[in-house]
Amino acid sequence: MQIVFALLRRSYLAVAELTWSALALMALGHALLSWALMSWAGEEKLAGDGVSFLYYYLVSATTTGYGDLAPVTQAGRLVGVLFVLPGGIALFTAVLGKMLTGIGQLWRRRMMGLNDYGDRAGHFVVLGWHDDFTHRLVEMLASERMPGTPPTVLVAKALERNPLPELTDFVRTDRLASPEALARSGARRARALVVRGQNDDETLAAALVAAHCNETTHIVTYFQDERTAAMLRRQEPRIEAIASMSSELLVRAAHDPGASVVASLLFSPARRDTVFSMRVPADAPPLRYGDVLAGLKRDQKVTLVGLSDAGAVDLNCADSAAVGPGRVLYYIADHRLDPAEIDWSRMARADG
């Protein structure tokens, strides 16, 4: 019995190391030879019907053993015991083992940040890891993820495993300013990149490399020092460089009680009355800011607060300001609006 187990183990190991194509050819060859031997043994009930033999072969190989089909001749039983069962079981366990190994490898690669998401589009990419800050950032991005949109991809160093496997995919890298890591994260077709390194120097380097590798993707960065953020804005105007506003909020709250609460409400997607943005579609007619403000309030129950063009934001627009296709509107609402569902033509009529 030990010899039989040793042979089966050797057969399993040898088969498990084969490619899927070689394994499929071996399975086909074993099944055909099994059918030929059963025909030679006079097993007409098994070998006379292709469907019946396939059913018998798979039931035997998977050790299910229903017992409704079985060899009836002595020669057929010997063929089953000495050839069909050992070979079929070895092939089945090899296929099953190979599948489980492949699934395990894919999961390990995903957890260890070795996967490639270069074909992904419309997602967010977060560069850098800070325990509480990034955790909260990823949670907020996930809370606004639309159905059908791929999950966020986290690019980080000094992490052995994905810290948030239920919320994000993971790309491990030695440095944030890595074109290869950006390519694996799918940054080129991402909706936006959010960059925050361990310090302002690392953030600056990662942002510049990201801008060089991704000429159209929106990039948002966070700096502790306003001077570094201002320098990046001058060098790369398309990058949205944000500096810490804690001092500004303290001053504003001292002069205007409740200002910090308003700021928290405006930028928290988990609460009502949040600031959102949308781009005026290309097929929208020429509009005036006052008409859009009144139309959005009337039809969508939201409050328009400003617009931008080429990065310049105006939060106190004149009613006569032009709102053409491509302009970005900022509004306060309980949820994000879909520009395609808005009747822009109705807003163009001054009489509503």
TrEMBL record:
Q: Which organism is it from?
A: Antarcticirhabdus aurantiaca
The name of this protein is Ion channel
Q: What is the lineage of its organism?
A: Bacteria, Pseudomonadati, Pseudomonadota, Alphaproteobacteria, Hyphomicrobiales
